Structure formats: C-alpha cells, structure tokens
Amino acid sequence: MPTDRFPPLRTDNDRIALIDGDRRVSYGALHGAVERLATGLLGGKADLEEERIAFFLPAGTDYVTLLHGVWRAGGIAVPLNVGATLDELDHYLGCARVTRLVAHAGDHAMLGELCARLGIDLLRPDELMAAQAGALPEIVEDRRAMMVFTSGTTSKPKGVVTTHGNIRAQITVLLDAWGWSGEDRIPLFLPLHHVHGIINILSCALWAGASVHLFPRFDAAAVAARVSAGDYTVFMAVPTVYVKLLDHLDGLDEGAARAMCEGFAAMRLTVSGSAACPVPLFEQWRARTGQVLLERYGMTEIGMALSNPYRGERRAGHVGQPLPGVEVRLYGEDDRPIGEEGQPGEIRVKGPNVFLEYWDNEEATRASFRDGWFCTGDMAVVERGYYRIMGRTSIDIIKSGGYKLSALEIEAVLLAHPAIAEAAVIGVEDATWGEVVAAFLVTRPGAAVSAEEIAAWCGERLSSYKVPRQVRFVDSLPRNAMGKVTKPDLKALLTSA
C-alpha cells in the first residue's frame, strides 16, 4: 500500500517529539522541517529515486530531520558512525556509492579530503532546508529506505538494505509487544547507526507519538539526573551502560542513590540488548532498582525477532520467544529443523521484518538465505519454551573434544566471580582437543585473583571440558560502538603475545 509519509509523523504542535538540549521540538515543527528538508534534497526533482544520502551526525534534531527527510524524498538514508575512522568511512561511502554526505560544519575539515577523492558533495544540514515545502513523491513500501552497515565483528562490514515495508514491520511489532504509547518518554544516547537506536528507540517512539530526549553521547551523570527527576517511562540500553549506571550509583550519597533507584523503579519498562546481558548483571540491576530487564534478540538484518514478554516471566539469560508475525526456527548442521528442546541449532528467521539485500553483494545475499529463511549465524537452544543464545556459530561456539561449548555460558560463570568485572571467552586451536577455552578477564578495581583460582572457580560450576585452559588478565576488552566485544581482536592479541 502506498503511503504519503513514512514513517508517519504527527502534525500536532502541542505534543513534544524531541528534547534536544534546551530545545523542545513539537511534532508539528518536526513535520514541517522534514518536509522542507525533503524539498531541499529534491532540488526541483520529482523523486530522489533511491539516491544514497549519508549523514555523519550525532543524536540531535538535525539527525532526525535528515533521516525522515531522505525517506520522504525517496532516497536511501545511510547513517554513519560518528566515531568511525577515515578508513572505515572510506569503506562505507565507497561501498554505498554515496553522492552526498551531510555533516556539521565542525566535521567538514576532517571529511573534506575524503569526500573530494570520492566525488561526494559535502553539505551542512542548514544548506538543504528549503524556504517552504513543495511537492513530494509517493513512497511505496517495497522501495529501499535505509542502508545500515553491520558491526564487522566477523567480516568486512556489509551494507544492509531495508525497505520501507521492512522498517514498518520492525517498528509496528514492537509497538504492541512492548506497550508503546504517546505518553512515553525515553532517553536516546545509543549510537544512531544501528537498529537499536534507530528502530527500537527513535522510530518506535515517534510512531507512537512519544517524546525522545536526545543525548549526543552517553553521560552517566546527566542521564542519571534525568532518571532521578522522573523524566522517563522507558529505558533501553546495552549491558555496558547498565554496568556504568551501577558504578555511578555506587558513587552517590544515600539520598541521591535513593532518588535514582526510585526513578528507575517508576518506569514501566527497561530493556537490555545488542549484547548478551550477564545473569549477575540482570540480578544486580533487579536488586538495586526493582526493575526486571527485558532482554531481546535481534540484528541489523532483521530488527527484533525474539523477546521476553512485556507482561509475563522475563527469564535471566534468555531472550524469550518469537515476536508476533516473525517466524523463528533452529536448524542443525545437516540443514534440518530441530524439533526438540535442549538441542542447539542455528537461528533462522522469516518474516516481513527481514532485510532486502546486502548492498551490491549478490553473493553474500544469496549465501545468507536457505529456502527463504535468513541464516543469522547465531546458535541458540530452547529451554522450557524460551530461547537462550549460545553465540555466533563462527566465534562463540567452541568445538573441543567433540563437544560444542557456548562461550556465553562460560563467560556468565566467570562474571559471577566477585573479582571479575568483564570477561570474554574464545576458542584457540589445540592439537589434541581441536580447540580449548581461553578467557580474557578484566578485574574489578582493587581486586586480585590468579589464573589458578579462576580455574578452581569454574571447575566447581562447569564440566571439566568447559574450564578455561588459558587465562589472560587485560586492562580492557576491545569493543565496537555498540559495546560488543570484537573477539577477532582477542585472537590477534593471543597470537601476538
């Protein structure tokens, strides 16, 4: 079905859409700015005809206006990581064959030479704003809308192309599943080049008519102050953010700590995603704030596929059940569906939420599907009706002595040790066992623990073949912008030692 505005934006001036620093932007003002920017992008054309427009912008009104403006003008929005290196940006821009890049004036010096070499017009947001809105094209749902690059944890980042219909499906399933309403208020401090920030927070909130408080980056003190003031009803973050908030909480005096905990306790929903939430963190958050985190599973190519229930049991260490309208199956190495609980398999997904293609990469697109099912590359097991993620088939599943070990399971045991703040587990080649478990650990400030103590701790809680054979203590774990540990970097660290 055609739509003249996607996603739909309210036009009422008495409802606040965005809080951006000291600015409060109504839905009416945002709608008007989007239409004028779309008109400016068109520059007299009838339709952008899927021109790739990239933007290098932090969370703010300019970002939101440009994202919707590109959609309204018929272009493909390419949001970029504002923390990316020039080499990474070179890959993104060249891969997408971007024609125009929009960035604030302060970033033009850094981006100028790259854009000149690639033949890309470098512009400021204000340069694109028309004096008044003009005629805008009709947008049908099977048109390409956005290109978001994968994290690149296992291969070179690929451009994931979603249509307007894909985005609609990804948003609307969460509106019902997570109880969104126009009365909601949510902070947005996550990177806006991933679906967690773009779809789960920004797009769901605007579709519902809720208010979004924009932060250019995560600031524990600033966010905590607004939480303590009771400003939010919904909160979504990655596990590392919850760790930082607990650390901030520990540094507050009794009154301030109580106010922060009460602010979280009053919210109707807190969500954790983009990386596995360790069970100790899940339990610690519940003990301190009274909130039971809702953990879910998704990825760039599919939006969200699995979720713990908004109403009902939210099980620690599990990501729940398939969302309405999303088909999920586990497949074994023989490419056959797994029909019984307790048997691990690869997650495969089918539904209107699944992306269209990897941009300009027909081979990778074809290889990622089997009989219409998207192969996620993630392993999971169903336990008492709930899915539990075991990790990436390529890096989180360790094959040792005929066993398939979940790195995430071993990490959860390590994180339960009182001296361990962060943990990452990988498999390393071994002539006898095929692979053995290696653990990289970050200790808590002032804590001391030996490799022998770690082995003893794990030996009491894990089968012997799961106990780390190698233990390395490090100052920090390498992570990408979404807080996921980049395990190939750990392997490189191990081999370079």
Description of the structure:
The structure is a single chain. By secondary structure, the protein is an alpha/beta fold. It has helices at 27-42, 61-73, 86-96, 108-118, 164-177, 195-208, 220-228, 239-250, 254-265, 279-289, 362-367, 407-415, 451-459, 487-496; strands at residues 16-20, 23-26, 52-56, 76-79, 100-103, 121-123, 144-149, 159-163, 185-188, 211-214, 234-237, 269-272, 294-299, 303-307, 321-322, 327-331, 345-350, 357-358, 369-370, 373-383, 386-392, 397-400, 403-406, 420-430, 434-443, 470-473. The chain has a five-stranded mixed beta sheet. Strand 1 and strand 2 form a beta hairpin. The radius of gyration is 23 Å and the shape is globular. The N and C termini lie far apart (58 Å).
Share of helix among residues? 25-40%
The first-to-last residue Cα distance is 58 Å
Q: Please give the radius of gyration in angstroms.
A: 23 Å
Tell me how many strands there are: 26
Q: What number is the mean pLDDT?
A: 92
What is the CATH homology-level superfamily of one domain? ANL, C-terminal domain
Question: Structural class of the secondary structure composition?
Answer: alpha/beta
What share of residues are in beta strands? Answer: 25-35%
- Strands of the biggest beta sheet: in what spatial order? 11-12-13-14-15
Largest sheet: 5 strands, mixed
Spans where pLDDT lies below 50 across 5 or more residues? none
